[in-house]
Write a structure and sequence with these properties.
about 20% helix; alpha+beta; 2 helices; about 110 residues; globular
Length: about 110
């Protein structure tokens, strides 16, 4: 697999609060991080738009460009997984969606 980049949309078995679910996610970590470590930091993607209503959620405007099948939202529900558990890269967030995702992360985490 090519080097993962921030803003890539991937498929992985994403651990949730109650179960593990195969789902899309957004790569949050950087190429420098991936070079130094074998893991990847991900944020959840959901098609349940009704729950994506907090300041740390973003409705993905260019969801088809991101490789998603249905309208989706980024949620600042972050996990770290081994890079080897990334099953596929399916797309890349548009620059405007990526800027909004970074804003969600800034709201959620001290940076």
């Amino acid at each position: 697999m090519d080097t993962l980049k921030s803003g890539d949309v991937i498929i992985a078995d994403f651990p949730g609060i109650t179960r593990v679910k195969r789902r899309p996610a957004v790569v949050i970590s950087t190429v420098d991080y991936h070079t130094a470590l074998r893991d990847v930091i991900l944020g959840a993607v959901t098609t349940n738009l009704a729950i994506a209503t907090t300041p740390t959620d973003h409705l993905i405007a260019n969801w088809t460009e991101a490789g998603l099948r249905r309208p989706s939202a980024f949620r600042t529900f972050l996990v770290t997984l081994p890079q080897s558990e990334v099953l596929a890269v399916i797309g890349q967030l548009s620059s405007s969606d990526w800027e909004m995702v970074k804003q969600c992360i800034r709201i959620a985490i001290v940076v």
